[in-house]
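In the current project phase, we have settled on a layout for protein records. A sample record is reproduced below.
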Amino acid sequence: SFTETETLFVELLAERVGKRVERSAYESALTRRNEQLAAEKRRFEDIARTSSDIMFRVDDAATLTYISPAVERQLGYAPADLEGTPFVELVAPDSIADATALYRRVRDGAAVDGTELRLTGADGDVSVFEVNAQPVSDRPTDGSVAQGIARNVTDRKARVRELETKDRAMNEATLGIVIADGTREGAPITYVNDGFCALTGYDRDEAIGRN
C-alpha cells in the first residue's frame, strides 16, 4: 500500500505529465497548422508571380501584407515598397470611398465581385481596375483578413466607349446602314440603323434575320 505522501506525489506527477502531454500535442498541432498556412501562402504567391492581374492581401489595419509583381507592370510600383502601406495610397481620390466600403464588407465576411476602382500609378496616371475580393478563411501568420485580384480594364472600357460611340453614330445616321453575317447560311441581317428603317419602311425586328 502507498502512504498518503506517496499517493499525493503520484497524483501531482500524473497531473504534470498530463499537462506536458497536452502541451506537446497542442504545440504539434500548432506547428502543423502553421506549416499548412505557410504552404498555402507559398502557393498563393507562386500563382501571383505568373499572373498579369494584381493579387493582394490586406490586414485588419487596412495595410497591404502582400502584393504581387504584376503591380510593377501595371502601375509602376515595386512590390516591396508597397507592403506595409495602407492600400488606399494606391486608390485615386474619387474612388477612396468605394474602396473603403469594399474593404469593410470583405473584412466583415462578405465576398465582393466586379467592383470597379480607379488606381493611381507611380507616374500619376489613373487606370480603371475590376476588383474581386474575399475574406481570408484562416488567419495566416501575416495577419491578413482579406485577399483579392485587381484586373486592369482600362483598355476594355475604352473599347466599349468607342463601340458605343460608333453604334450611336450609326443609329443616328440618315443613310441606311445594314450589316449581314456572311459566314452564316443565307447571310442573315444582324443590324440595321434607324436610317434604314426610315428609308425602307421595315421595322428593325422585321429586318433582323432576313437575307
About this structure: The chain has seven helices and seven strands.
